[in-house]
Specification:
2 copies of one chain form a homodimer.
Chain A lengths: L1 E2 L12 E14 L2 E7 L4 E7 L5 H9 L5 E10 L7 E12 L13 H6 L1 H4 L3 H22 L4 E2 L5 E2 L11 E4 L2 E5 L4 H11 L1 E9 L12 E10 L3 H22 L1 H6 L5 H4 L7 E3 H10 L12 H9 L5 E4 L12 E2 L2 E5 L1 E6 L4 E8 L4 H10 L8 H8 L5 E7 H9 L20
Parallel strand pairs in A: 1-2, 4-6, 7-11, 13-14
Antiparallel strand pairs in A: 2-3, 2-5, 3-4, 5-6, 8-10, 9-10, 11-12, 12-19, 14-17, 15-16, 17-18, 18-19
Helix pairs in contact in A: 4-6, 4-13
C-alpha cells in the first residue's frame, strides 16, 4: 500500500494509503473511533468502524493514547468539514508504541513547564506553525539575496576580538589563546564585499545578555548583507525591498499557519516599499511631542522605539543618530559630522528595531582615530584597516535579527517561541 | 549614466555605463591603457585611449595600482577574445583610492602568508570561484530539502551535554553553568522529526581538533537531516539522491568557476544514483585483499577510507559497522546485533567520508542500557529519552560536512580554502 504524508492526501483521493504518525486526539461513539492523527505535515481524521476493521485494530484504538505512534491504513475520502479537506476511512490500525502520561495535555500549562518540555512542546499545532513560518522567513531571506546577486559568505563564530564592547561576550579557551563567540559578522562581510561586491552572512550570533526581556536571547540568528559602492540611501532602499519581500512571501505561502496563530494579517499586508524615513532629530521631536521623557543625544530605548513605531503603519527607518551613541565603524555625515550615516528600521505594531545598519567609515585616518577614541585595541583591527588601505570604497550594510522578525510576523509577545531551542539566562536545556 | 555589474554588461551592449570596481591588472601601449577591472561579479577589460578621455582620466590610469578602487565609464562593446565577451571603451576614469604596495602580488606566496592575509586573498579569482561554488552547494542543499518537504529547524550551539565524547569540546562559562559548543544537532533533530516528520538543521559545529590535517577545521558547517518513520535503507536512498542533486547543481550552474579551478569535471558527472553499497565486512575484506594493515573490528581510518573510495567511481556507502565503534544512539541490526544500522558515505577520488548517519535506537530500554554502557550521564539525556517514551518510531538521518564537500567538488587538497575564514589549531585570525 502507498505511504503518504497527510499534506499529500488529496493526491490519493479514492485510493488506499497508509499514514504514519502520532495520535493527536481521539473520541469514541460506540462502534466508531474518530482518531485525529498528525504526521508533522498536517492533521487528518481517521474514522474507524468496528465492522470494517480486524478486532486487533479496533482494540488498538482503545489503547492508543495522546502521542502514541501509529500507522493507519484506509481509503482517502473528501470531507469538506475535515481539516485539510479529507478523511481516512480506516481498514487497519497498527499501534507502534504507547505513550503513557504524555506530559503536555490539552489543559493550560505554565511557560516554565512548557520550556522544560520544549522537545515535546514542539509537537503542538501552534509551535509547528511558528517553526514553519520561521523556515519560510529564512528561505525568503536567502532567496531575496541569492536572486539579487549576493554571494553567501559565512562569517566565523570564533573571533579574536570584540566588535562592539566586551561586557556581553562569551569567551572560550581556544588552545593557547582566548576566543570570543561572534556578535556580528559585519567586519568580515566588509572584507568579503571588497572581493565579491554584494555578500551576506547568515548564522548564529551570541550575546551574554543578563537581562530577562521579551526581546533577548543569548543565541540568536542574524543575516547581514554588505554591499560595496553603496551609500546610506542605497542601504535604506535595500532594507525596505528586502523586508517587504520577506513579509510578502510569508503572507503568500503560510496562510494556514498564520490562521493557526490567529495572526491578524491586515497590518502585514501594508508592508510594501517605500517605508517612511525620519531622522533621529525628527524622532526626538516626535517623542517630545508625545510627552515621552527622552534626553536628546542619547540612543533610543526600547520604549522610545515602541512609541515611534506605533506612530506608523509601515516599518519606519530612523537615520542619522548622534555619532557618539553609535559604533566606531559608522561613517559620519559629511553635512553634519556629529551624526552617523546609520539607520535603524523599527517594525510597526510597537515591535521596535529589527534592522540596524548604515554606511561604514571608509577613510583610513578617520577610522583609525575612531578606533583610538573608542579605546579599542588597534592591533586587533589591523586586517580591518587593510580594507581602507587597499582599494577603499563607500560601502554599506545592515543586520536583521531573525527571532525578532519571526516574533513580529507571527504576532508573538516573546522571542522564546521564535527559535526551536531557545537559550536565555537560566535556560540552557533541553 | 547607468551603473552596471560586470556580469550584466551584456545587457548594455552599445550603451554607455559605469562600472565600479578595483584594478586587477593593467598594461600600457603608448597612448592606450588596458585596465583589467574586477567588481566581484567578473572581470572586464577597459580600453582607455588618450585621445578619447580627459587628461585627468588618462593620468588616473598611470597612477592606478593593483587593487586601487576606481570607476570606469564608457561604451560596452562585444569582444570575443575578452573574458565575459565584452570590453569597455572608456570615456572617463575616476580613481577613488590608491592602494599602495598591495601585499598579494602575482608572484607565488606561501600558504601561511596568504592565510594571514585571508581578508585580501579572498579577492583572487581562485578564491572567489571557490566561494561562489560554496554558495551554490549550500543553496543546492537547502533547495533539495526544502523541495522535498523538510522543515529547517535550527539546532542550538550552546548545549549542556556532549553528544559524542568530551575530549574535543569547546567550553564556555554560561552565567553560573558550563556550556559546550555543539558538535552535532542530531539529538535535537530527533526531537524535531517527531514534531514535523522531516527536518534538517544547518549551522556551524565545533571540534577542538588538536591534529593538523588536511581534513580538519575547529569550526565547520554541517547539514543534518532527520526523518521519522525511516529506516537505514530509506536513509541511504535519501543520501544518494541528495548528494547527486548537489553535485548536479554545481555542474549545471558553476561551469566557469570549475574552469577557473581547473577542475576535471568528468569524475563529478558520474555522481548519479544509485551508489554502490558495501557492508563493513565487505570493506574489511577489500582492505585485506589490497594488502592494507587493517584490524577487523576497528573503525575505518582516513587511509582505509581513501583506499576504499578509490576503488569506486561513485561515492560508496559503507554500512553496518561494528556497534562497538559507533555512537550510543545507533540502532543495532536485528539480524546481527554486533553491527550498527549505520552508513558512512565515502566520496570518490580518494576523498573519504563526507556523510555519516544511520538509523537511531528507538527502544527506551535498549537506549538506556547503551547510555549506561558508554558511561554517559543519564540525567543529561532525560529529554532525549522522552522521545522513546512518547510515541517512539523508527527514524534515521545523517550529517554532511560542508567543507569536505566543497573541497571534493572543487578538487582542493586541503579544507582551509573551502570556508571564508578558516579556524584551525594556530589559526584564529583574521
Amino acid at each position: 500500500m502507498n505511504k503518504t504524508y497527510i499534506s499529500d492526501a488529496g493526491r490519493f483521493e479514492g485510493q488506499d494509503v497508509t499514514v504514519n504518525g502520532w495520535l493527536y486526539n481521539k473520541r469514541s461513539s460506540g462502534k466508531l473511533w474518530f482518531l485525529l492523527v498528525r504526521d508533522g505535515t498536517g492533521l487528518i481524521q481517521a474514522v474507524v468502524s468496528k465492522a470494517d476493521v480486524p478486532e486487533e485494530s479496533f482494540a488498538a484504538c482503545e489503547r492508543a493514547t495522546q502521542e502514541s505512534s501509529l500507522s493507519v491504513s484506509g481509503r482517502i475520502a473528501p470531507d469538506k468539514r475535515a481539516p485539510g479537506g479529507y478523511e481516512l476511512q480506516v481498514k487497519s490500525v497498527v499501534l507502534h508504541q504507547t505513550a503513557l502520561d504524555y506530559p503536555i495535555t490539552p489543559k493550560e500549562h505554565g511557560t516554565p513547564f512548557l520550556m522544560d518540555n520544549r522537545h515535546l512542546w514542539l509537537r503542538s499545532s501552534r509551535q509547528t506553525a511558528i517553526l514553519r513560518i520561521r523556515h519560510e522567513i529564512i528561505r525568503a531571506i536567502r532567496d531575496f539575496f541569492d536572486s539579487n546577486g549576493f554571494t553567501l559568505v559565512d562569517a566565523p563564530v570564533f573571533t579574536p576580538a570584540a566588535c562592539e564592547g566586551t561586557t556581553t561576550l562569551f569567551e572560550t579557551q581556544y588552545f593557547d589563546e582566548k576566543a570570543f563567540l561572534t556578535q556580528s559578522g559585519q567586519l568580515y562581510m566588509e572584507a568579503a564585499a571588497m572581493a565579491l561586491g554584494k555578500v551576506y552572512c547568515f548564522g548564529p550570533t551570541f550575546r551574554a545578555e543578563k537581562s530577562k526581556t521579551r526581546r533577548h536571547l543569548t543565541e540568536f540568528w542574524m543575516v547581514e548583507p554588505e554591499v560595496a559602492y553603496a551609500d546610506l540611501d542605497d542601504d535604506m532602499a535595500l532594507a525596505e525591498n528586502f523586508l517587504s519581500a520577506v513579509v510578502g512571501r510569508v503572507l503568500e505561502t503560510r496562510k494556514e499557519e498564520l490562521k493557526t496563530l490567529e495572526r491578524d494579517t491586515a497590518p502585514l499586508e501594508k508592508i510594501t516599499p517605500p517605508f517612511p524615513r525620519i531622522s533621529y532629530d525628527e524622532a526626538a521631536k516626535m517623542l517630545k511631542e508625545k510627552g515621552v521623557a527622552f534626553e536628546y543625544g542619547t540612543d533610543l530605548g526600547g520604549t522610545d522605539e515602541t512609541v515611534i513605531s506605533e506612530a506608523f503603519e509601515k516599518p519606519v527607518m530612523v537615520h542619522r543618530y548622534p555619532a557618539e551613541v553609535k559604533a566606531f565603524y559608522m561613517k559620519n555625515d559629511p553635512s553634519d559630522p556629529s551624526k552617523a550615516l546609520c539607520v535603524d528600521v523599527l517594525a510597526p505594531e510597537g515591535i521596535g528595531e529589527v534592522i540596524g545598519g548604515g554606511q561604514r567609515e571608509d577613510d583610513l585616518e578617520t577610522l583609525l582615530a575612531k578606533i583610538k577614541k573608542h579605546g579599542l585595541p588597534e592591533q586587533a583591527f589591523d586586517w580591518y584597516l587593510d580594507l581602507r588601505k587597499y582599494g577603499s570604497v563607500p560601502h554599506s550594510g545592515f543586520g536583521l535579527g531573525i527571532e525578532r522578525t519571526v516574533g513580529w510576523i507571527c504576532g508573538l509577545p516573546h522571542v522564546r517561541e521564535t527559535i526551536p531551542f531557545p537559550r536565555m539566562l537560566n535556560r540552557l536545556k533541553p
